[in-house]
C-alpha cells in the first residue's frame, strides 16, 4: 500500500521556521517532522510514499537526494523503501495536489494519506482494516486534541481544581492519517480546491466518509509552541509517536525499523 504525504503548504503559523525551509523539514530531535511521519507508516509495513511538494519543495528533494536535479519528478529506491517526490505547485490546494499524483496511484485498491506536519501513535493496521471493512471511499482518523490552555474545575464561583491542558471534551476533529479509495480523487474538480472542504463535503453528502476514532496520542505541529512541545517530549525520551522497535538512548528516542531508516 502507498501513502500520500501532503507537504506543499506555506506553514505561515510557523513562520519562525518556515521562512528558511518548508514545514515538513522543521526538525524535532534533529530529524525533520517528515522523517518522523515516514517512520510511523514504515512501522506498519508501509514503505512506498508519494510526497506532494510545493513551497520550497526543492529542499525536500535535496533532503532525499541533494545531487539529483530538482526540476523533475524523482523516484528514489532506498533498500525496502521507495519515495516519489512530485512538484505539485506552490499555490495548489490539497485537492489539486492529490489530483496531481493520481497517476502514481494507478492500480492501488486503497492508499493512505496524511499531512506533512503531524504525528500520532495511530494503529495504522487497525485503521486500514476498518476502512476495508465498511466499503466506503474515505476513512478519516478522528481525534480530540489536547486543549491549548489549562482548564478550571468550577462550582459556581468556587475553583475546585486546575487541569493542565486536559483532553478536549468537545467535538472530534480530522487528525489526518486517512485511508482512501482512488475513486475519492474524482470528488476534486479543480486544482484550487482544498480536499478537506468541497471535495470532502461532496463525499460526506454521498455517504462515503467514515471515522476511525483514535483515543491515543496526536499532535499537529502548527506553531512554534507545538514544535517546542514535541521537542521536549523527544528530549525526555517520551516521544509517544514512536511505536515499534524503539531503541532508547540518552538523547531521546532514536529508533529503527525495516524499511525507512
Automatic annotation (TrEMBL):
Q: Does the keyword Nucleotidyltransferase apply?
A: yes
| GO MF annotation, one | glucose-1-phosphate cytidylyltransferase activity
Pfam families attached to this UniProt entry: NTP_transferase
| Alphabetical UniProt keywords | Nucleotidyltransferase, Transferase
Gene3D superfamilies noted in UniProt: Spore Coat Polysaccharide Biosynthesis Protein SpsA, Chain A
Occurrences of domain Nucleotidyl transferase (ranges): 2-219
Please tell me whether the keyword Transferase is annotated for this protein. Answer: yes
Q: Which CDD domains match?
A: G1P_cytidylyltransferase
NCBIfam families reported in the protein's UniProt record: G1P_cyt_trans
**What name does this protein carry?**
Glucose-1-phosphate cytidylyltransferase
Amino acid at each position: 500500500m502507498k501513502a500520500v504525504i501532503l507537504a506543499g503548504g506555506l506553514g505561515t503559523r510557523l513562520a519562525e521556521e518556515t521562512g528558511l525551509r518548508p514545514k515538513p523539514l522543521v526538525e524535532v530531535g534533529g530529524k525533520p517532522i517528515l522523517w518522523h511521519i515516514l517512520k510511523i507508516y514504515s512501522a506498519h509495513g508501509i514503505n512506498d510514499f508519494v510526497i506532494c511538494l510545493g513551497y520550497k519543495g526543492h529542499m525536500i528533494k535535496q533532503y532525499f537526494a541533494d545531487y539529483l536535479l530538482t526540476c523533475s519528478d524523482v523516484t528514489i529506491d532506498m533498500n525496502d523503501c521507495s519515495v516519489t517526490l512530485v512538484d505539485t505547485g506552490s499555490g495548489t490546494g490539497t485537492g489539486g495536489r492529490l489530483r496531481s499524483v493520481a497517476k502514481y496511484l494507478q492500480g492501488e485498491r486503497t492508499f493512505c494519506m496524511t499531512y506533512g506536519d503531524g504525528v500520532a501513535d495511530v494503529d495504522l493496521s487497525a485503521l486500514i482494516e476498518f476502512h476495508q471493512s465498511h466499503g466506503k471511499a474515505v476513512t478519516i482518523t478522528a481525534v480530540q486534541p489536547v486543549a491549548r490552555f489549562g482548564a478550571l474545575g468550577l462550582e459556581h464561583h468556587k475553583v475546585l481544581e486546575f487541569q493542565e491542558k486536559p483532553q478536549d471534551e468537545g467535538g472530534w476533529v480530522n487528525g489526518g492519517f486517512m485511508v482512501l479509495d482512488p475513486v475519492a480523487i474524482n470528488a476534486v474538480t479543480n486544482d484550487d480546491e482544498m480536499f478537506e472542504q468541497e471535495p470532502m463535503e461532496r463525499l460526506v453528502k454521498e455517504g462515503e466518509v467514515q471515522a476511525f476514532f483514535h483515543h491515543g496520542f496526536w499532535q499537529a505541529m502548527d506553531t512554534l509552541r507545538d514544535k517546542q512541545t514535541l521537542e521536549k517530549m523527544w528530549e525526555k525520551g517520551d516521544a509517544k509517536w514512536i511505536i515499534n522497535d524503539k531503541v532508547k538512548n540518552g538523547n531521546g528516542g532514536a529508533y529503527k525499523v525495516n524499511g525507512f531508516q
